[in-house]
Design brief:
heterodimer, A: alpha/beta, D-Maltodextrin-Binding Protein, domain 2, 2 domains, 4-stranded mixed sheet, two-stranded antiparallel ribbon, 14 helices, 61% helix, elongated, B: alpha/beta, Rossmann fold, 6-stranded mixed sheet, 4-stranded antiparallel sheet, 10 strands, 29% helix
């Protein structure tokens, strides 16, 4: 192994990048943009105004609901009005005059309450249902004919992150790894395909450079950019830099300030290991492509299933048996698990879970290095 | 042969791809300091022969030696220069970065060699330009420079003048002659017969076999013609229209 030649290959990649603004943009601006949009959508989207119509409820409940709605500090603004019966409630929802209906039947102590929604938008209606439930929790005490009675307040507590953590806090740490994996795979795949098609690989192989030096140089070159990418994204995801108003520009904050209890350094290590696997997967798969478009065709086959089955969006344990087994052999699964263990649960390198995940990622990287080197054919080395 | 041993030697070299015999029992021995022209039509086995001699492909049988070292051998590659048929340069790198990259892979530590090579291919004033901004002829010159930067004693050039304008072609051949005069063995594969007279020796290849060898003059007189193209057809057993005729017997 000649270190000079390894660095020459790595430097060649860096020099190429320097003049390739689009690839640099893809590597740095694209993940920031996607994470920014995701953060924005998750954090600041609201249910909007919720029109709640109530039928069959005693007056004291309606009053209590109106008071609770007025006090509500939730994202949604709730307006409460009354209708005659369930048929009127359903008609109002059909006509678009109401979002949620509350139909009360019977009286204390055998009272029954039905919440009626449109039934066409499960995610949004679940949010509305939650809002109505919270209002009910505050107001059903009014039905109990005991003066001064109120229901006990239920307080939510959590072991790791704070109770007000949202989906962004859970997704953002994982994105550190996924973006590095995705972009590094694409860039390496295309870059190595160009080596094969453009004849430079043939010229490389007519020099004393070994296959190992080529693969290591590539890992180092792209690993360097993957490292920078993860670093920038880590700062953006966990950072919170307040910029004061300057002239006509209003004050703003850089960074998503995502909650974390773990060490970004360990998360960083996980993401970089995953990226090194991606470099060599890209080299390996470039053998099976003839054009750059064909490299992109690997995205739905190689990348998307890993995102769906690797625990990014839902836990691997909840997948059906067959898919869970597939999920358990995907490298992304172990990176996602390690990133969540570290960032959400504060695990460090002494954790056996993290050690296992890192071990698997190292193993995967080694296998991909072997596969990549195996596709670089020369009879000499 | 002028030296103690051949710069390039092949014995019974064969390469088969399934039923196709791309190189079919080639013997050759190339002396140092001479320019050899490997002439034959497309698909005759020129590139495969170069790939076998440089160790980029493994022979089905037979042997090849470069400067006395049996191929394939990785360390022997440091003494070989190879200019592939395709440009084989990095378009996003500058001229100097391309040359420096291949110089480093060849373990060339002589910093002046990059400047010398730039001067040789007359690209000194474009050394900082990205290769993709160069004209086609300049890119061929850069490709040649990448093969020469480590001053190899043996140089394999696969169709080096394809797509090169006549004026540049003259420059290329004068470079090759200067290198040969300095002791470099140059093996040029080409299908352009009008370049053949610039070579010291010619090897005619067809269907993976060497069908004739000698100087241009020798081959012409053997074939009884003053036209090398006609001579090639005669050695190949073809008439002027490229149709098979009765074989003229061995020409070796």
């Amino acid at each position: 192994m000649n270190i000079r030649r390894v660095f020459a290959v790595a430097r060649r990649i860096a020099e190429g990048f320097r003049r390739d603004e689009r690839s640099l943009g893809l590597l740095f601006a694209a993940p920031l943009l996607v994470t920014l949009l995701l953060g924005w959508v998750i954090r600041d989207s609201s249910l909007g105004d919720v029109n709640l119509v109530v039928a069959g409820a005693p007056d004291q409940l309606v009053t209590a609901l109106k008071d609770a709605a007025a006090d509500s500090s939730d994202k949604a603004t709730v307006s409460v009005s009354t209708l005659a019966d369930q048929a009127a409630v359903e008609r109002a929802i059909r006509d678009g005059d109401a979002d949620v209906g509350l139909v009360v039947e019977g009286s204390v102590p055998t009272i029954q309450i039905a919440v009626v929604t449109e039934g066409t938008d499960p995610a949004n209606e679940a949010g509305q249902f939650g809002v109505v439930q919270a209002l009910l929790a505050k107001s059903v005490g009014a039905l109990v004919p005991v003066p001064g009675f109120s229901l006990p307040e239920v307080r939510r507590e959590t072991v790791y992150l704070s109770p007000d953590a949202n989906q962004l806090d859970v997704l953002a740490p994982v994105f550190l790894g996924i973006f590095a994996y995705f972009f590094v795979f694409i860039l390496t795949g295309i870059s190595f395909l160009r080596e094969r098609v453009g004849g430079t690989l043939e010229r490389l192989l007519a020099t004393p450079v070994t296959r190992g030096e080529i693969v290591l140089g590539y890992s180092l070159g792209f690993g360097f950019f993957a490292t920078l990418q993860v670093l920038v994204l880590t700062l953006f995801v966990f950072g919170n830099l307040d910029i004061p108003a300057i002239g006509p520009i209003p004050a703003f904050t850089i960074g998503l300030n995502v909650q974390t209890v773990g060490s970004p350094a360990v998360a960083f290590l996980v993401a970089v290991l995953l990226a090194i696997g991606a470099v060599n997967l890209g080299i390996f798969l470039s053998t099976f492509a003839r054009t750059e478009l064909q490299i992109l065709q690997f995205i739905p086959i190689v990348i998307v299933p890993q995102i769906l089955l690797g625990g990014v969006l839902w836990p691997v344990e909840r997948l059906p048996d067959v898919l869970r087994t597939i999920g358990q052999v995907l490298p992304v699964t172990y990176a996602v698990d390690a990133l969540r263990e570290v960032m959400l649960k504060g695990a460090d390198l002494t954790s056996t879970v993290v050690q296992t995940d890192l071990g698997v990622l190292v193993g995967v990287a080694v296998v991909f290095v072997g596969l990549a080197a195996g596709t670089i054919k020369r009879e000499v080395a | 042969m002028t030296g103690g041993f051949a710069a390039v030697e092949a014995k019974e070299l064969r390469k088969a791809f399934g039923p196709i015999r791309a190189v079919d029992g080639i013997d050759l021995s190339l002396s140092p300091g001479r320019i050899y022209g490997l002439l034959g039509p497309n698909g005759s086995g020129k590139t495969t022969l170069i790939r076998l001699l440089t160790g980029l492909a493994k022979a089905t049988s037979g042997s090849a030696e470069i400067l006395g070292t049996p191929m394939p051998n990785r360390s022997a590659l440091a003494r070989i220069g190879y200019m592939p048929q395709s440009e084989a340069i990095y378009p996003e790198l500058s001229v100097a970065e391309n040359i420096r990259f291949f110089a480093t892979l060849q373990d060339t530590r002589d910093r002046d060699s990059i400047d010398r090579t730039l001067e040789l291919v007359e690209l000194s004033d474009r050394k900082s330009s990205p290769a993709l901004t160069l004209s086609g002829g300049m890119r061929r010159r850069l490709s040649l420079a990448c093969s020469l930067v480590h001053d190899p004693p043996v140089l394999f050039l696969d169709e080096p003048t394809v797509g090169v304008d006549p004026a540049l072609r003259v420059q290329f051949w004068s470079h090759f002659r200067r290198l040969a005069d300095a002791g470099t063995t140059i093996f040029v594969a080409s299908h352009v017969m009008d370049e053949a007279d610039r070579c010291d020796d010619l090897l005619f290849i067809r269907s993976g076999k060497l069908i004739a060898r000698g100087t241009g003059g020798e081959l012409r007189s053997q074939a009884g013609t003053d036209n090398l193209e006609t001579a090639f057809l005669k050695f190949a057993g073809l008439d002027a229209a490229g149709q098979p005729i009765e074989p003229t017997g061995s020409v070796q």
